[in-house]
Amino acid sequence: MTAPRTTPAGRPPLGLRERKKIKTRQAIRTATYALIEEQGYDATTIEQIADRAEVSPSTVFRYFPAKEDIVVTDEWDPVMTAELRARPTEEPWADTLRYVLHTVLDLSLAEEPAVTRLRTRLGVEVPAVRARMLENAATTGRLLRDALAERSGLDPDSLELRVFSMSVMGGLLEVSHYWAETGHRDDIRDLVDRALHVLEHGLPAGKP
């Protein structure tokens, strides 16, 4: 999911050094996605990415340890957790998650819709990207646990929160894969709603 362009309220504006880092990071990501669209994931090398982004290969590795990291790394986790913490504590968890996930999706699709679709497709087609997505989901799941723990007063390391948060993340991964496998024909917001409905109410009744 790139970072919103606005500075969150109460946070001082970024300094020149941080702005340069963000610009370099974005240049690397933009170069990578363009090259992958042109010639495919496997044919795209770090050297080509560096040349297109006008940086050195060592700079690419300083920002992203591996090529798949360039594809799967985004800046949306802080947005998600901030939105979670801002929701009313009395709001049902399903409504909270629906609101937060829709917010993040709307921002992501508004800023880079083609990239969002490309990333989900690569998550289906490229095993290394899919594996790194699973690793990232575990990291995001921990952030989700912490935010939900603050909201609920439950222990973030409790089995219940661990199971719940990773069920959410697993569901979102399957939404991403399903969306890509079906040619992105559905509205991903509707797919997220369907996934949350399953988590909240269980499987629909099967045919007799």
Brief sketch in words of this structure:
By secondary structure, the chain is mostly helical. It has helices spanning 16-39, 46-53, 57-63, 67-72, 77-86, 93-111, 113-125, 127-152, 159-181, 188-201. Helix 9 packs antiparallel against helix 10 (188-201).
Strand content: under 5%
Give the ordered list of helices and strands: HHHHHHHHHH
How many helices? The count is 10
Helix content: over 70%
Mean pLDDT: 89
Number of β-strand runs: 0
Largest sheet: none
Structural class: mainly alpha
Euclidean distance between termini CA atoms: 41 Å
Radius of gyration: 18 Å
Bulk shape: globular
| Low-confidence regions | 1-11
How would you describe the overall organization of this protein?
This protein has 208 residues and is mainly α. It has ten helices and no strands. The N and C termini lie far apart (41 Å). Residues 1-11 have low confidence and may be disordered.
Secondary structure layout plus pairing:
Layout: H1 16-39, H2 46-53, H3 57-63, H4 67-72, H5 77-86, H6 93-111, H7 113-125, H8 127-152, H9 159-181, H10 188-201
Helix pairs in contact: 1-2, 2-3, 5-6, 5-8, 6-10, 7-8, 7-9, 8-9, 9-10
Index terms:
globular; disordered N terminus; mainly alpha; 72% helix; 208 residues
